[in-house]
Amino acid sequence: MRVLLTGAAGFIGSRVGAALRAAGHDVVGVDLLLPAAHGPGAQLPEGCHHVDVRDGRALAPLLAGVDLVCHQAAMVGAGVNAADAPAYGGHNDLATTVLLAEMFAAGVHRLVLASSMVVYGQGGYGCPEHGPVDPEPRRRADLDAGIFEHRCPIGGEQLHWRLVGEDAALRPRSLYAASKTAQEHYALAWSESTGGSVVALRYHNVYGPGMPRDTPYSGVAAIFRSSLEKGETPRVFEDGGQMRDFVHVDDVAAANLAATTVRDGFTALNVCSGRPISILEVAATLCEARDSSSPPQVTGQYRNGDVRHIVADPTRAAELLNFRAAIDPREGLRQFAFAPLR
After folding, report:
1. Is the distance from CB of 267 to CB of 323 less than 8 angstroms?
2. Which pLDDT tens digit goes with each residue over 70-83?
């Protein structure tokens, strides 16, 4: 099978490309080498084309003979401030619409789309008295007082996190989240109008070798790693009890490979480890692996708009793709403590 892979030089895209080639597929890679993802002076790997996905004329000849597009290219991170909005809308949403239009023109009917857990917004919660509820955003007065858990909107009880399944409502709460949600919506509309197939893979907290370091868009695991390399203690926001699902980049690549077999309509799937872990445990695991003399510093500080808990339900990906993450995050993070960063 011939696959057009966007974002082919990136942290995730490079691993996806390697998995596709190892399975015998012919991969046509493109990448724009955004500095936020690659850093200054980055070079394209051999055989990868320097292409802006927003440029339909550059894309069109590369789609000739392609059976499937694997769309990884994106501007990532929550965004520094509101001035980033045009960049997210351009690199993520406009680029996706151009790609879909060129796929239609070239007769390419299959897409694997890199989406994200951020489309779920605050995640899933349950109240001991009232069952599943959708909480209101946390109040600043509570956060200032060190009360970090959500309260039930009905009776004020403390809420507990629940696994988030793919049927949950999409409620983006950042520029990046809004752009990923829009990507899914455009892809769904394209699927409905053309009869094409789309698999939207909602990545949870991806980590592993080759993560970008020291940028506003770096993942928290890479930020903790960078602190330890500098001899500094990782700083953990709130009380460190925020729950996440960390999934290794090689498992993400395996999920993309499995998704190439789907040929029917629009399907959204969580890509996760299925093994929840707290942010404090992530920091502590990295400290322990690197023999840090100091434990992580729990600051009690918070950032407006941060999500308290978001933990994925892996069931549907296991059923539809036979995908189950192979790497436990606790072991994977110990290995990551010494892995090369970008």
Report:
1. no
2. 999 998 876 667 88
